[in-house]
Amino acid sequence: MNQPLAGYAPAPVTARMENHGSHMLKVAMQTGNDLFARAGSMVAYEGFIRYEPNPAAVRQIARDWITGEGAPLMRCSGDGLLYLADYGADVVVINLAGDAISVNATNLLAFDAHLTWGVERVKGLAKFAGQGLWNTTISGQGWVALTSRGEPIVVDCGDGENETYVDPDALIAWSPNLKVKGKRSFKAQSLIGRGSGEAFQMAFSGQGIVVVQPSEDSTDRLRFRG
């Protein structure tokens, strides 16, 4: 029985975070190098690893979180190998080298606890969404893991001469230095009489990237401040 399953065995550790297949994250845990991970995302682990739900660092930011309930995160610490997943979604691993990324909360799987992070207003969208939209910004030197409903595309906004337009329901993350504004247009189905006919896109310009998933997942997208 072991022989046909041998191809699924874990590979030797080569980095702090790496993919095991396309739908699972492997994290090399070490004492003193803690991790924040989405609550409930642990599928397996080796060694001695402790889990703290809703840790103090998260509770301090909870007042800025849109739902008022705090981010669904747990703090992981200890030594060993930790495997994380999110209902079979694709996993994207990013190594920040002193830069930053702005991420939708539903696409945030894990990140190094020493990174600087917080919930920030998405500038340029207030007139489209009342008091505005909010996102999670992470910066510093360390690792971040995101999820995508299908294999994502990373769009380089280039020299900033042209704008890149994205459906908010397909947006995963972007470079926070990009300029963002909203745009309204008409949906194709309005031509056959279905729906309100109005569509909303986010327009990005400047130097940076935008990460887009091949799925319009409208569950808990960029959160509205109530």
UniProtKB/TrEMBL annotation:
Pfam families listed in its UniProt record: AIM24
Name the UniProt record assigns to this protein: AIM24 family protein
Source domain of life? Bacteria
What SUPFAM superfamilies would the database entry show?
A: TRAP-like (SSF51219)
**InterPro entries assigned to the protein according to its UniProt record, in alphabetical order:** AIM24, AIM24_sf, Trp_RNA-bd_attenuator-like_dom
Q: List the taxonomic lineage.
A: Bacteria, Bacillati, Actinomycetota, Actinomycetes, Kitasatosporales
